[in-house]
Amino acid sequence: MSNFDAPFQSYLDELHREGRYRSFADLERQVGRFPKALWRPTPDASPREVTVWCSNDYLGMGQHPAVLSAMRQALDIYGAGAGGTRNISGTTHAHVLLEQEICALHNKSAALLFSSGYVSNQATLATLGRLLPDLLIFSDSDNHNSMIEGIRQSGCEKRIFRHNDVNHLESLLVSAPANRPKLIAFESVYSMDGDFAPLQDICGLASRYGAMTYLDEVHAVGMYGASGAGLAEREGVSDRITILEGTLGKAFGVMGGYIASSVSIIDAVRSAAAGFIFTTALSPVLCEGARASISHLRRSSLERDLQQQRAQSLKEALRLAGLPVMPSPSHIVPVMVGDPVRCRQLAAALMERYSIYVQPINYPTVPRGTERLRFAPSPLHSQADIDYLVQSLGEVWRDLQVHPVAA
Q1: 108, 182, 250, 315: which one is catalytic?
Q2: Per residue in 34-54, pLDDT tens?
Q3: Is 250 a known active-site residue?
Q4: 0.70 cut: is pTM over it?
């Protein structure tokens, strides 16, 4: 160990003591067999088939034939990479077509691609603060780290409202000068609890107090609305969202992030956001795969409907088994554990004994004392998969004596 390693090792030792050290699962996704994957406990070990229960590929679109076909064709047309930043030779026709598809999905005038959903939030929110002098940002207390970091980097004054508490939000809006630029930043589906934001109430407050709205729909695009445009589409408020942010790496099954808004806002962010300007453009292969995925899910609700059925079946089975499934109206199924060590032990036992992969969710992703297992059923999980998961989880829960489970 070098002289420079000691503070880093000390940090890692503390993570181990607290039970918060995170290990990667060495997986090989199997085309045509999702949610099955091959797992190697060590790099040299023989692979073992496991069932993945925590993928953000919510609808299995990462293996959809239309997506794979589009990506193969794009590889033959464009080659592997974009060849540069968007400003310097990296804007291919695939990027243009994908941004047009995103505009059509959300009924917005313009869209802008980023390398990830994290970067799209961070770069956009940071840039808005620099472009709008004296901007005041109102942020939900449970917003994602990418939004928190973007707001911090914006240098703006911010006011945090209690999670989904529209009365608290209104009290903060009332106290702000009427002529000061304002922006309300919030998510539609909060991924750790699986709850929905009160979109209509927040949009109503935004209209009343002259605030812009910035909505993170990363866990909702593809999943909700008649065409998969997200919770804003389902709730009929898309036209009241100033800037909508989404991802291509969850329900759409590929990679990348984006924002959609007016032509002026998108062009200003495009021209000023360092996280966009200085980053190599997404591969056109990814762009074509994402475009095919969005196009398919705009026409097909089959995947969404099946996923909702699977999520409801899992929630009911967990409840009947006496396991502490958290109430959630969304496709996300969290099971409360409340202890980081127990959470890690449960996940390890499920993997090693039952070939079930679910990642323990610990601090700082969730507050201390609310550690959990977070299940993401897909339309490709079978009822047999659900039954086996619930039986297996009940057994390891009893064995580890987390707390009593109903018989």
Answers
A1: 250
A2: 999 999 999 999 999 999 999
A3: yes
A4: yes
